[in-house]
Design goal:
Length: about 170
């Protein structure tokens, strides 16, 4: 059994900042990463992920306390959406609007399929939204950011699927 070391909220914050600085330090010294604009948090996070994996194989686990994780993730993904501007869309021309239209149609299709399948499997239709555009278009980070809200407001304790109790056909 692994030994678990609890890392407090302040220490977790300091580790996160250190990971960012580590990524910046490495990116400045590795031309390949700078040339292809690999984000500093990704570089630092990958190094720390490798270190934590090695620690885990040696029987040591770290448990970070992240009291603001959910609210900060929601704020981040909200600001990403709010940063879109109509003037920038106009600069992209006709092709951008065609892409926007096609993407919007696919988002509707993703949600329709997700909600329909969730209903057929006797699941809360909101599970279909989580399996639809929230994660497919928004990404796993968006899904993680909204998971706590879905759990709190709608009682969705797990986002995993169970075998349906009735046949789909």
């Amino acid at each position: 059994m692994n030994t678990v070391y609890e890392i407090g909220a302040l220490e977790s914050f300091l580790v996160a900042i250190s990971v960012l600085f580590l990524g910046q330090f490495i990116n400045r010294r590795v031309p390949f990463l700078k040339k292809y604009k690999v984000p500093e948090p990704i570089v630092g996070g990958l190094i720390i992920a490798i270190i934590i994996t090695v620690l885990h194989t040696q029987g040591i686990d770290l448990a970070f306390t992240l009291p603001l994780e959910k609210i900060l993730m929601l704020m981040f993904f909200t600001t990403v959406g709010l940063s879109a501007s109509y003037s920038q869309l106009l600069k992209g021309g006709k092709k951008v609007f065609i892409f926007l239209g096609v993407a919007s149609v696919y988002i509707i299709i993703q949600n329709a399929i997700g909600v329909s399948l969730a209903s057929m499997m006797d699941l809360n239709p909101l599970m279909g939204l989580v399996a639809g555009s929230i994660t497919l278009s928004g990404g796993h980070g968006t899904g993680a950011a909204w998971a706590a809200t879905f759990e709190e407001l709608y009682g969705l304790k797990t986002l995993s699927l169970r075998w349906p109790q009735r046949p789909l056909v």
